[in-house]
Specification:
WH-like_DNA-bd_sf, elongated, ArsR family transcriptional regulator, Beta Polymerase, domain 2, 46% helix, 171 residues, WH_DNA-bd_sf
């Protein structure tokens, strides 16, 4: 859906990287290596997105870093669009609607780093979580999203980045 609206694959990857989580940031060469693309194509898209106000440039550590402009009027809409495109909203609704014991749902792996690898990893934490239902939900999501989906009930040891998609308020 979104890939037919945004025809530049590089621009779509950058939007996913920076808008899946406002904490994601990157620099030209690092992004080029991550996406396995030329620095020229990445530079061109970064400049377009920065000139439009969607990204912010920050100089530091002898590099120019880019991150999402959370003050942009369309930030929330773009982030929602990216989450919808990746199917997070559907997965959250399914999991939370079925099990009230969920305390936290987080994104792991490549998508937490802003990489559209086709493998979505989600961890669902809480008490008395129905693992069988989560496994079934993951299988169902794979069919809907046309992506590989892994759902965990514990954070895997090798996890480096975790982006919280839902956290129950503790009163």
């Amino acid at each position: 859906m979104l890939d037919s609206l945004i025809t530049s694959k590089t621009r779509l990857k950058l939007l996913i990287k920076f808008f899946v989580s406002a904490n994601n940031r990157g620099y030209l060469r690092g992004i080029a290596e991550e996406f396995n693309e030329s620095t020229n194509s990445i530079r061109k898209e970064l400049n377009h997105l920065t000139d439009a106000g969607y990204l912010i440039r920050e100089e530091g550590e002898q590099k120019v870093f880019y991150k999402a402009n959370t003050e942009h009027t369309l930030f929330g809409s773009l982030q929602g669009l990216i989450h919808n495109f990746l199917g997070f909203d559907q997965m959250l609704e399914q999991v939370l609607g079925r099990d009230g014991n969920v305390e936290e749902v987080a994104l792991l792996g490549d998508y937490a780093q802003g990489i559209d690898s086709g493998h979505i990893e989600i961890v669902v934490l809480g008490k008395n979580i129905d693992s069988l239902y989560l496994l079934h939900s993951g299988d169902k999501a794979e069919g809907l999203l046309d992506k590989r989906v892994s759902v965990y009930t514990q954070v895997p040891e090798c996890t480096r980045i975790k982006i919280i998609l839902y956290q129950r308020d503790i009163i």
